[in-house]
Design a protein that fits this description.
Largest sheet: none
Number of strands: 0
Distance between the termini: 25 Å
Number of helices: 6
Structural class: mainly alpha
Length: 122
Amino acid sequence: MSPYFYIFGTLFFTVYGQIVLKWRLSQLAIVLPEGLLDKTLYLLKLIFDPFVFSGFASAFIASLFWMAAMTKFEITQAYPFMSLAPAMVFVIGVFFLGEVFTIGKLVGLLLIILGIIVTVKF
């Protein structure tokens, strides 16, 4: 099995967690309460939503993949790939969550990809 599988797993579960949390919280359309106690109770209640819980679980799974990746790569070689997470979130956010597409975001995405290429190749 390719060691890049571990990096891909880290990216997949990281991005899944972010997207599912945003999607589910948008579906619930509940405003975060003002008081500290109310905020805490609200967030604790959300954790038990199955989709929200899966987002947290995916963050844990992503960390397991990252630990495996760290046994195969130098961190300076592996970490630039983590820059793909915001790029993937951008694409999924625009196409599946209906978020706003701007030229500035596109340029940022292209710069991230260019940065990964430069870091990995040179």
